[in-house]
């Protein structure tokens, strides 16, 4: 069940920090997305290519952010559909996004996904990788990609001090390379968005608090 009360409350909280909500609509219906658009939301996050392709066909007015693990062989399909890819987790993927963007005469906004959690299962660059790639100039070779900032997910834990520490380390990395075009820090989900806002998030990715639990 969609919860508009939560939506408006979280939106107001984010607004106090100058941050915005990306409404994570994976596994949720087109009808629910339309309901949220009627309430004023424009940006939606999706994790799966097929789902994004189908929903975008039906709702072209939304701004779609791809936030899931992306295989290089699926990049071509989503480039024309997305306003941002938040989950660039390798140079190989970035190279493909650049190539497919060039073929379509586009520039694609991207975030670099950083692995800050203790969990092995999560993907992304390490903090040291990011520092090395910036310093070596390896990130300058992609003229059709605009690297707008960083994205990260904290460990799934009850230990709030660990979550806060992980958000802080991401914020610190972000500040090292911040510029007028590298200005987005995507961190915080339903369970930890408050801490993320306090630690400097500019985009919180909220699914279940708005759309209800997923099956
Ligand atoms: C599913 C997902 C979210 C939203 O999670 P909720 O806990 O439902 O708010 C945020 N970010 C990513 C990368 C996700 O996969």
Could you characterize what this model shows?
By secondary structure, the protein is α/β, with parallel strands linked by helices. Helices cover 40% and strands 19% of the residues. The protein is built from 9 helices and 8 strands. The protein has helices at residues 4-16, 30-38, 49-58, 75-78, 91-103, 127-136, 160-177, 193-198, 208-211, and strands at 20-24, 43-46, 63-66, 84-88, 108-114, 145-152, 184-187, 203-206. The protein has an 8-stranded parallel β-sheet with strand order 7-6-5-4-3-2-1-8. The chain is globular. The N and C termini lie close together (12 Å). The protein binds pyridoxal-5'-phosphate (PLP). Residues 24, 26, 47, 67-68, 153, 189-191, 205-209 line the site of pyridoxal-5'-phosphate.
């Amino acid at each position: 069940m969609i919860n508009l009360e939560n939506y408006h409350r979280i939106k107001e909280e984010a607004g106090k920090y100058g941050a915005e909500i990306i409404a994570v609509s994976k596994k949720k219906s087109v009808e629910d997305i339309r309901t949220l658009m009627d309430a004023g939301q424009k940006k939606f996050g999706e994790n799966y290519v097929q789902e994004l392709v189908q929903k975008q066909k039906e709702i072209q007015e939304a701004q779609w952010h791809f936030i899931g693990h992306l295989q290089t062989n699926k990049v071509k399909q989503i480039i024309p559909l997305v306003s941002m890819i938040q989950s660039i987790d390798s140079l190989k993927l970035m190279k493909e996004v650049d190539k497919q963007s060039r073929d379509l005469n586009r520039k694609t906004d991207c975030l670099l996904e950083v692995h800050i959690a203790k969990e092995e299962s999560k993907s992304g660059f390490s903090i040291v990788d990011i520092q090395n790639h910036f310093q070596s100039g390896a990130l300058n070779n992609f003229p059709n990609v605009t690297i707008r900032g960083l994205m990260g997910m904290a460990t799934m834990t009850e230990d709030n001090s660990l979550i806060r520490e992980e958000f802080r380390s991401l914020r610190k990395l972000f500040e090292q390379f911040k510029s007028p075009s590298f200005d987005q820090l995507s961190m915080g989900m339903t369970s930890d968005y408050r801490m993320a806002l306090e630690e400097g998030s500019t985009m919180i990715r909220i699914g279940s608090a708005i759309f209800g639990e997923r099956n």
